[in-house]
Design goal:
The chain is an alpha+beta fold and 255 residues long. It has 6 helices and 7 strands. The chain has one domain (18-254). The strands form 2 sheets. Strands 1-2-6-7 form a 4-stranded antiparallel sheet, with helices on one face. A 3-stranded mixed sheet has the order 4-3-5.
Length: 255
């Protein structure tokens, strides 16, 4: 009668377990950057879709009014440009308040977030309107889309007619809410090339990280592009400057 040898129990040794853990760690290290880039790209695509819809709403407003929305920061909600565009099927809730409109749905960039150290009562707005073009607040006749005359309360009363935009395919209308110049970028409901800007709570770093150094913008003709922040706010070439102004001139004297 033959004696059976005792069967060896199947188990990992400590060395084998460490090898498996090491392989998993290496795979994760290789995959995480790819996953991160994929998530960033998905958020940018969502933002581009939001901007495109805002462009469609602007087109609807132009069809009805043949002029661009006035820009104002007055307390009356009905006169704000966001409230005017909201009426063009951007949300099923037509009675939403301004503070609700700009923080949800297509008005909220998925890559933008309110700074943790910002005052709680401060309203964070993702997207901006090219209301001023190039220049400073002291200019009496701004070159953007928000109106001909800007008063001390940031309100305007004379709208820009649709026919006044010389080259709609080269005129920025709405985009990520950035304003900047000389390497400093701020955030808010205006899209503005100006030297009157401060690095509020680290806004420059946040702005450059939102879309990997780019901004999503829709032009007056409805097409969307993603130029770099350096092109928008630092490039001194005519090609960069004319895109801010409805007369399609660089206005280099405003740098």
């Amino acid at each position: 009668m033959k004696l059976k040898r005792p069967t060896r129990e199947l188990a990992f040794s400590l060395v084998e377990l460490l090898v498996v853990i090491g392989i998993i760690a290496i795979l994760l290290a290789l995959l995480l950057p790819t996953l991160s880039r994929s998530m960033q790209r998905a958020r940018q695509i969502q933002c581009i879709n939001n901007i495109h819809q805002l462009g469609q709403a602007l087109h609807g407003y132009l069809v009805d009014n043949h002029s661009y929305p006035l820009f104002t920061q007055r307390h009356t909600e009905e006169v704000k440009w966001q409230t005017k565009l909201q009426k063009y099927e951007l949300s099923p809730n037509d009675n939403a308040k301004f503070s609700q409109i700009v923080q949800a749905g297509i008005w909220k960039c998925p890559s933008a977030s309110k700074p943790a150290n910002s005052p709680q009562e401060t309203l964070f707005i993702s997207y901006g309107y090219n209301w001023y073009g190039m220049g400073a607040l002291t200019d009496t006749n701004p070159l953007g889309l928000g109106g001909h005359v800007i008063d001390a309360s940031f309100g305007s009363s004379i709208p820009v007619n649709e026919s006044e935009v010389v080259n709609p395919s080269e005129m920025i209308a709405i985009g990520d809410g950035f304003r900047g110049g000389n390497g400093v970028v701020g955030e808010g409901q205006v899209l503005w090339r100006t030297y009157v800007v401060t690095d509020y709570l680290g806004s420059t770093k946040r702005s450059f990280s939102r879309h990997q150094g780019k901004a999503n913008v829709v032009f007056c003709d409805g097409h969307v592009e993603s130029p770099t922040l350096k092109f928008l706010f630092e490039d001194p070439s005519d090609a960069a400057l004319v895109r801010w102004n409805r007369d399609h001139l660089p206005h280099r004297e405003k740098l």
